[in-house]
Amino acid sequence: QVQLVESGGGLVQAGGSLRLSCAASGRTISGYSMSWFRQAPGKEREFVASIIGLGDITYYTDSVKGRFTISRDNANNTVYLEMNSLKPEDTAVYYCKSGANWGQGTQVTVSS
């Protein structure tokens, strides 16, 4: 079973940037699918981005395409979500997911 710990959230103005990190322990992340989800107040948790398999194929929800980039560092067993051109509607708790395992989340707040 993998343990996931997110970090890097915070308060940023619209148009700003943040980089979220998801540090994994318990097993390697190499070759495994890793995903970011987010949940805004009063809304259901939604998919944001995934990085899949050894080829590191990436997928994004439409609302973040061109602004967010998911990547992984296998040597450090960490997955990243680089977020640029942030908008107030990106405000949410961001969660890292691998298989059935979730992290505790990190809060991202974008002020207008």
Which key terms come to mind for this protein?
112 residues; mainly beta; 7-stranded mixed sheet; 11 strands; 54% strand
Structure, briefly:
This protein has no helices and eleven strands.
Number of helices: 0
Specify the helix fraction band. under 10%
Strand content: over 45%
Which structural class is indicated by helix and strand composition? mainly beta
> What gap, in angstroms, lies between the N and C termini?
40 Å
Mean pLDDT across all residues, rounded? 96
Low-pLDDT residue intervals, each spanning 5 or more residues: none
Q: Would you report the number of β strands? A: 11
Shape category: globular
The SSE order reads EEEEEEEEEEE
Give your account of this protein's structure:
- The termini are far apart.
- This protein has 112 residues and is an all-beta fold.
- The protein has no helices and eleven strands.
- Strands 2, 4, 5, 6, 9, 10 and 11 form a seven-stranded mixed sheet that branches.
- It has strands at 3-7, 10-13, 18-25, 34-39, 46-52, 57-60, 68-73, 78-83, 92-98, 101-102, 106-111.
- It is globular.
